[in-house]
Fold:
Amino acid sequence: MTLPHPLVATRDDPYQDLAFVPSDKALVPFVSVDDMMRLVHFVGIEEMLRGLATYIEDDFRRWELFDKTPRIASHSKEGVIELMPTSDGEVYGFKYVNGHPKNTTEGLQTVTAFGLLADVATGYPVLLSEMTLLTALRTAATSAMVAKHLAPKGATTMAMIGNGAQSEFQTLAMKATIGLTTVRLYDTDPAATAKCAANLAGTGIEVIVCASPEEAIEGAQILTTCTADKRQATVLNDNLVGAGVHINAIGGDCPGKTELAEAILHRSDIFVEYPPQTRVEGEIQQVAEDHPVTELWEVITGRAPGRTGRDQITLFDSVGFAIEDFSALRYVRDALSDAGLGHMLDMLADPNDPRDLYGMLMRAGPDGVAQASSSVSQ
Ligand SMILES: NC(=O)c1ccc[n+]([C@@H]2O[C@H](COP(=O)([O-])OP(=O)(O)OC[C@H]3O[C@@H](n4cnc5c(N)ncnc54)[C@H](O)[C@@H]3O)[C@@H](O)[C@H]2O)c1
Structure:
């Protein structure tokens, strides 16, 4: 179905003479996929990943003042659709996101998303944005920000297991934030690895294509798992995980979907975003409900230790939390005007008399031209 552009009257539009001109109060800045791509190129992807990591870290420092709730998930056999809300008391935000591992076989993405920020004082939306690209950027920025706190100092090499949509972002965020120099790629589908290797060519990262998980983890101080399979998979076996590494486990992010052998969890110190959500969705759904975990915001604010020893295995059991999306939307909102990007979307009804919504509607009809309000010019 093709819809006319909301602000453009077409030749066969019966209302074209009305020439609707929405008032300023009706308009909400909108960031399309095209705008987001232009923003990334305007800022530079590594600079943007660093900027996002800083915004996310800043919001983790103010963790206690946020409204927090596990995301609201609607599960099906094929995947999940989720809403992720939060507020810092002044700004409210939410993201709509799906996860459908089989989508790629139909030419669709596993993860798509959009999100919104609103002013808490009035409830009016202040930004509507695509978030499919932004989710990949923010997930990578979060991983890198966490690796900065938990990975062995001077880590240069990462095994990247799962070379799908998130993989280049994960790699570049580690390069931009902790100075990663080498990535060792493995995917059950060699085409995904070839795509990732080609995309990373020329980025300054040394790319090593590996034929097995065993080969991928050789010499790596950071092990990232980022696969999509809606089952309890074993992407990393216990015997693949040596002392002193940092595991960045991205793909186990909903009930019944995990990537790590359970024994790894018993050898690791586990760090999570928001326990009530991670206990249901993360790798730790495999262990007892009271299995010890540390909340990342406590490490970031210095209340809890992070890496304490050379042989310690640190595990970031990443599921993705609403505050990271909130931070990412804040970043986009701040960066947008410098870049001169975004569109105004006629999204909020704005009758002259706030209580006369019906009157506004009727004046917009064919018989209402004569009484048109100032939000309908002739
Ligand atoms: N934690 C978070 O914040 C967060 C954010 C976004 C996405 N995710 C999750 O990350 C995962 C990856 O997302 P994506 O968009 O890159 O998906 P994708 O479908 O584009 O890529 C997944 C890749 O994993 C590979 N794979 C599957 N099983 C494997 C195995 N056993 N060993 C090696 N490779 C294997 C597939 O061949 C595919 O190339 C998804 O499960 C998604 O839900 C998590």
